[in-house]
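Worked example

This section walks through a single chain of length 104. The input is the sequence exactly as stored; nothing has been trimmed or padded.
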Amino acid sequence: MGSTKREQYRPYQLRYAQLSDAMGHPARIAILEYLSIYFRANSREMIDLTKLSKSTVSQHIKELLDSKLMFERYDDFTNEHYYYLNPNAFEMMGEVVDQIFKRS
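Given that input, the structure is written out below as tokens.
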């Protein structure tokens, strides 16, 4: 896929494209749904949830982290990384959609 000439697009257009890409796979939707119910998960739980390989789940995690729909915390006590749904994720999507369709 070719590179996008980012300067020709408005910031909200680029953000919507990034969020759409992040949510563009059923495994990522499943991860977001899981986090909305169970609050946090580690990569092992996501692997069990999606039935995908560790490397594939890592790529999905990276995409969700890059889009800021999810964030990561390291727990010193358990020595594990935990992932959480960004509490502002719904509002982030809503703001972009409102801008596209000019809702107030």
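What to look for: The chain has a mean pLDDT of 89.
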